[in-house]
UniProtKB/TrEMBL annotation:
Keywords: Membrane, Transferase, Transmembrane, Transmembrane helix. The chain crosses the membrane at residues 12-34, 54-77. This is Diacylglyceryl transferase. It comes from Polaribacter porphyrae. InterPro entries: DUF6787 (IPR046714). Residues 19-97 form the DUF6787 domain. GO terms for molecular function: transferase activity. It comes from the Bacteria.
Length: 102
């Protein structure tokens, strides 16, 4: 736990607990949100090959997860951590220009 606190710049074990809970809840939430979206798009394992359906669904879950992570983090009182986490993650994907200040 000490290594994790040091790496993330966190003071308390409770903050780590809430951060890990937010990651877990957000994963389930993103998958839950993706289901009606795939249905709306007419995608299901019955209508297309499951070998195509699941990669498409995972590709859909990824941006939903990224968009909802700061919101779920806010619910757990960890918005500052998750906002910094998102900026760092998206910068590594080459999307850092979205957060540049003039």
């Amino acid at each position: 736990m000490e290594k994790l606190k040091q790496r993330w710049g966190i003071e308390s074990n409770w903050a780590i607990f809430f951060i890990l809970c937010a990651f877990a809840v957000n994963g389930s939430f993103a998958a839950w949100v993706a289901k009606p979206i795939t249905s709306f798009l007419g995608l299901s394992p019955e209508t297309i090959n499951p070998w195509l359906y699941w990669p498409l669904r995972i590709l859909l879950i990824f941006p939903i997860y990224q968009l909802t992570l700061p919101m779920v983090g806010w619910l757990f009182g960890q918005f500052k951590f998750f906002w910094a986490f998102e900026k760092k993650f998206l910068s590594r994907l080459g999307l850092g220009f979205l957060f540049k200040e003039n």
